[in-house]
Amino acid sequence: QEASQRFALPASGAGGAVRQENLVLSTAGTDQVKGVLTLQGDALCQADVNLKMPRNNQLLHFAFREDKQWKLQQIQDARNHVNQAIYLLTNRDVNYQFKTGSEVLKLMDAVMLQLSRARNRLTTPATLTLPEIASSGLTKMFTPALPPDILVNFYINLNKLCLTVYQLHVLQPSTTKNFKPAGGSILHNPGAMFEFGNQRYEVSHVHKVECVVPWLNDALVFFTVSLQLCQQLKDKISVFSSYWNYRLY
Fold first, then answer.
1. What is the pLDDT of residues 88-135, one digit of tens each?
2. CA distances for 180 relative to 64, 132, 157, 204, angstroms
3. What family is this (predicted)?
4. CB distance 108 to 89 below 8 Å
């Protein structure tokens, strides 16, 4: 229940606006990328990003279009798994009596599965290929439009909201460099190559900035505590079951 409140799940059908939070993106020791994000539940509703180009120190500024917001699928999925865990625990009559220990064990396994999936969605960002990032709807979120040699990706890693900016250069058809398309990864390194729109590119620079989302940190703690409580209950049932079997024997 504590975790669900952090995700701003509506309680008993009661609505209410989800709070907005302004988050500052930064990385110690570098000012290549700076930004301010507005997070509302599972949606980035505003983003202002400044990018300093390393070649000429030109400063580029990008912001979300006013009619756009970007859903963070990891938060959405984690919230849904928490909701499912609560449903498993509360979808019985208030006077329901469990008949056997195995019935409780089965319920705990189902709840723990949902809690583990919720936690894993926050701790394990998706691996994406560079063409998948290039074709993502995120590239159409910004005004002015992103130049063709810039790719961006937002994701959650534990309690942090991360922004990765990739700067690209075009590989000429006459280049002698061996072309090896990069596979899926959470973070691509300089030198990674890919083909998109009949054009070949290579990543020249990678900038990663991040910010802590305090309520995500709380949620992760509550996932851990909840899983521990479930396991403790399973252990107690196993002990009593063994004792009962021994007495019968």
1. 999 988 888 988 888 999 999 999 999 999 999 999 999 999 999 999
2. 33, 16, 28, 15
3. Belongs to the rogdi family.
4. no
